[in-house]
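Figure 6 in text form: structure in, sequence out.
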């Protein structure tokens, strides 16, 4: 494993938000009224791009693109223009039905040609849309659930698939936020229906009612307990649902806030303790009853033993509170189970307990008593923990004295260098960064490190030093990206120059836009033979769920555009207009608007969680 290849994935996760943070820090140094004006300009320009996006969306041929863009725009607009957002959600639902008609007629050859089965893709988009609507308005989500139902489910409600039924129940459960009594009534009706899976389906109702109306939650918990006991008596299996019920109803009582522990009068209404006591008693009885016939010691074959052991241990604090007379019997059974556990399993449990406590010295001592092969994994985990905590001397000592496999030591050495690099960057110790950077062979990664250093200088107000670092990075790449790594490096630099030299930033963005156009044209020519990105009717399917190879690259382009939102808006519109395909222009606009308006989906979160495609190392 090379340092360059390993550091690349680390860099891609860490770098995306660095320049944004630097720009925010730099902006924070400006007068407050100036910072507010900048933010107002950003939001104003973002909303203008959103209008352009929606205008462009109406011209798209593929309903899947229109549905995705309209739904995302509606979510972003909800708090600003609810009436418009509702119209967009309904238009997106109409697009879903258009998409369904196409999906229903799709042949296997067509599915193979475009790279995905249209019906499964439709279902994925449908539930994503409905989930977004439900976050805003449950009743609207219920309306659109019915409006987007497939014809066969409309004709025969029993034909609804499991996922739709579950989603319908979740929507109903969310009514507890606005109408707890109606949610309770629906849950009781479901239980009264007698279906064996009714108890599991009603759990979400209970969770919501615990938060909104503990009195109704108490009544529903009692009904659930009766239903679960009736169902479990017929199966004699592990009481999984009973365990879930107990978790839901006991959590508020078991862990009251510290300030409420001191003042009983300040405690909010909670589940009636009589129901909790009855559930604890039922759970204890079932756990002890199921461990008969020697099953409590058969850890290698019986799932019952593992389940019972963990549940009895979890149950102890509640048993001590509600069933003190049963505690000796529970402890005796636990001791019996521990005694019958195979030595290696007991050792594993003891190690896990030590790790959970964070007692690494105790883990080291325990590892020394194990056979050498078993101890190696523990030494590795302790060394890794030391690296994560910044104790590199301890990690080096363990690697030198305890770890025998060269490949394992090398892996930890790479991890240690990554941590050293990041720590030096975060603390601005660039004299330590430079020697480490010399070991990085990838141009993209070297550009990324220099750009991060520039961001650190910019956050301190050192614009001249930041520009020198960016100029150094720019000299590492040509004017025309020869591969994806260089293209990503160009986009990093475009974002880096935004606050220092917008002219250069726009030059880099325009060059990247031109190169992406060439790549998209080439990809379209390959469609049907080697589908690089899903497409249909000469339009790319630019939906996150499609898994297209260009979506993350376009997100990076949008990140750089966002950094320039307060510089020259006409120039920004010109850069986006430079994309030849309307679906690409729409996608980039949406990504920019989302960056600005959807604070809950920050760029840092996306960079660490949804990278679509890994880049090719550039040596």
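Output sequence:
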């Amino acid at each position: 494993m090379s340092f360059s290849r390993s550091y690349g994935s680390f860099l891609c996760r860490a770098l995306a938000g660095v320049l944004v943070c630097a720009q925010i820090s730099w902006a924070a140094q400006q007068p407050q009224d100036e910072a507010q004006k900048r933010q107002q300009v950003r939001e104003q320009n973002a909303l203008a791009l959103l209008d352009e996006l929606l205008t462009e969306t109406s011209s798209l041929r593929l309903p899947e693109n229109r549905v995705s863009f309209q739904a995302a725009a509606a979510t972003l607009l909800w708090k600003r223009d609810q009436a418009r957002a509702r119209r967009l959600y309904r238009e997106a639902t109409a697009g879903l039905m258009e998409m369904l008609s196409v999906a229903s007629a799709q042949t296997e050859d067509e599915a193979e040609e475009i790279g995905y089965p249209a019906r499964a893709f439709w279902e994925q988009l449908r539930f994503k849309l409905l989930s977004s609507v439900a976050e805003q308005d449950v009743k609207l989500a219920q309306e659109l659930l019915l409006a987007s139902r497939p014809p066969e489910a409309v004709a025969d409600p029993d034909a609804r698939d499991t996922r739709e039924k579950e989603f319908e129940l979740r929507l109903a459960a969310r009514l507890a936020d606005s109408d707890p009594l109606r949610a309770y009534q629906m849950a009781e009706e479901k239980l009264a229906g007698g279906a064996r899976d009714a108890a599991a389906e009603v759990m979400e109702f209970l969770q919501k009612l615990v938060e909104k109306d503990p009195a109704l939650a108490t009544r529903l918990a009692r009904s659930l307990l009766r239903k679960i006991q009736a169902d479990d008596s017929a199966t004699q299996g592990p009481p999984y649902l009973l365990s879930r019920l107990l978790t839901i109803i006991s959590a508020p009582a078991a862990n009251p806030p510290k300030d409420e522990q001191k003042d009983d009068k300040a405690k909010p209404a909670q589940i009636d303790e009589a129901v909790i006591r009855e559930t604890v008693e039922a759970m204890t009885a079932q756990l002890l009853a199921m461990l008969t016939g020697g099953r409590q010691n058969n850890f290698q074959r019986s799932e019952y033993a593992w389940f019972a052991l963990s549940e009895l241990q979890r149950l102890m604090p509640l048993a001590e509170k509600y069933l003190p007379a049963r505690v000796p019997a529970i402890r005796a059974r636990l001791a019996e189970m521990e005694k019958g556990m195979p030595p290696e399993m007991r050792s594993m449990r003891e190690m896990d307990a030590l790790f959970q406590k964070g007692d690494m010295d105790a883990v080291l001592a325990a590892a020394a008593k194990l056979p050498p092969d078993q101890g190696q994994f523990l030494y590795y985990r302790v060394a890794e923990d030391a690296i994560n905590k910044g104790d590199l001397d301890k990690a080096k000592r363990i690697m030198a004295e305890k770890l025998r496999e060269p490949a394992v030591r090398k892996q930890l050495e790479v991890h240690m260098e990554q941590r050293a690099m990041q720590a030096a960057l975060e603390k601005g110790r660039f004299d330590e960064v430079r020697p480490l950077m010399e070991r990085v062979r990838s141009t993209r990664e070297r550009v990324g490190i220099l750009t991060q250093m520039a961001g650190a200088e910019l956050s301190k107000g050192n614009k001249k030093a930041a520009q020198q670092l960016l100029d150094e990075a720019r000299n590492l790449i040509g004017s025309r990206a020869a591969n994806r790594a260089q293209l990503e490096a160009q986009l990093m630099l475009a974002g880096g120059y935004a606050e220092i030299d917008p002219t250069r930033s726009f030059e880099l963005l325009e060059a990247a836009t031109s190169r992406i156009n060439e790549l998209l044209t080439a990809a379209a020519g390959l469609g049907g033979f080697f589908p690089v990105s899903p497409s249909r009717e000469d339009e790319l399917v630019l939906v996150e769920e499609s898994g297209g190879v260009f979506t993350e690259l376009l997100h990076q382009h949008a990140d750089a555009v966002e950094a320039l939102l307060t510089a020259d808006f006409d120039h920004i519109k010109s850069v986006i207009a430079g994309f030849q395909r309307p679906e690409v222009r729409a996608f980039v606009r949406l990504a920019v608007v989302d960056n600005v308006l959807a604070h809950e989906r920050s760029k840092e979160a996306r960079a660490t969680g949804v990278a679509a495609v890994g880049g090719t190392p550039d040596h």
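Caption detail: Confidence is low (pLDDT under 50) at residues 1-22, 253-268, 295-301, 600-619.
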